[in-house]
């Protein structure tokens, strides 16, 4: 009888020890999984640059991180935190225009890309090790034979809620044939209120004109030149314009057809401007653009604009999450953790049972 009791105690002890060891091992594995999953929240973007049967090899691209997700919104960060753009309109056409604004802002302010690269012989370029966030991707013109390709700038979002952190993108292009004829270009300025109606805003603006992302000329637009400027060029260039100092309360949009470039300042808040009159005594005049009246006061009214943007899971252009679903799944962590605690509890329980039996036998 005593021998049976001893064997029972040994069995309970061994099983309890085994359960404790298994429980501790599973708990450690769940911890390693958490670390691995956290480290794995990086994605990649694969650009596939082909036009029908034409493979665009050697096409250079830059990628910049412009913001991060907060709930269902995005906040522009770092060097883009003061960019003159709002994301209230998230239609495809609007996002294309906003991408142009951020591209011009980055080039004019010499913001360096996160990474750069060129497509291989298959027309493919991969940007990897991308942490979650909102990215701006732009390409440089590429000439093949008599045709020059101008890729469109686009937004790409890397986020685990998409189930896949790896993305394919098929950029859109504008194409033109080489010409030796002189081409006439124009830049013009338009002032609009928040309802899209024209308004009269008497001031001047400074505009930088860029050719192949290099500063080409700086001009001033005002009522004196009817808010327009013209220039001519020969050859195939990638042109865009940039408004240097945007009046407070306005945002900017750039529209173009590769020949005419229109700058639209859209009024979103109360605007104040300060001028000095040539009188014996200097008077500060504040003109408020919110009505048809003008008043003189020594109080300056300013407004602030937010940089919080709302982004859907959709990206611009033809970017689609069509790579295999490689997003991280968290259920193994929960299962391993739960099993680990269960086995630890069983082990502790069996250890207590062995101790209770031992105390009873001693009595």
Short summary of the structure?
The chain is an alpha+beta fold and 363 residues long.
Distance between the first and last residues' Cα: 17 Å
**How many strands?**
23
- Proportion of beta-strand residues: 35-45%
SSE ordering: HEEEEEHEEEEEEEEEEEEEEEEEEH
The poorly predicted ranges are 32-39, 271-333
The geometry reads as elongated
What would the average pLDDT be, to the nearest integer?
A: 74
Which bin fits the share of residues in helices? 10-25%
Global structural class:
alpha+beta
| Main beta-sheet annotation | 6 strands, antiparallel
Q: Treating each run of at least 4 consecutive H or I residues as one helix, how many helices?
A: 3
Report on this model:
The protein has 363 residues and is α+β, with helices and mostly antiparallel strands. It has helices at residues 2-39, 92-108, 331-362, and strands at residues 42-48, 50-51, 54-55, 60-70, 73-76, 115-118, 124-131, 133-139, 142-144, 147-151, 154-158, 166-169, 173-177, 183-192, 205-211, 214-221, 228-233, 239-243, 250-256, 260-267, 272-276, 284-288, 308-310. Strands 4, 5, 6, 8, 11 and 23 form a 6-stranded antiparallel sheet that branches. Strand 4 and strand 5 (73-76) form a beta hairpin. Helix 1 packs antiparallel against helix 3. Mean pLDDT is 74; it is low at 32-39 and 271-333.
Present the secondary structure layout:
Layout: H1 2-39, E1 42-48, E2 50-51, E3 54-55, E4 60-70, E5 73-76, H2 92-108, E6 115-118, E7 124-131, E8 133-139, E9 142-144, E10 147-151, E11 154-158, E12 166-169, E13 173-177, E14 183-192, E15 205-211, E16 214-221, E17 228-233, E18 239-243, E19 250-256, E20 260-267, E21 272-276, E22 284-288, E23 308-310, H3 331-362
Parallel strand pairs: 1-12, 14-20
Antiparallel strand pairs: 1-7, 2-3, 4-5, 4-6, 4-8, 5-23, 8-11, 9-10, 10-13, 14-17, 15-16, 15-18, 19-20, 21-22
Helix pairs in contact: 1-3
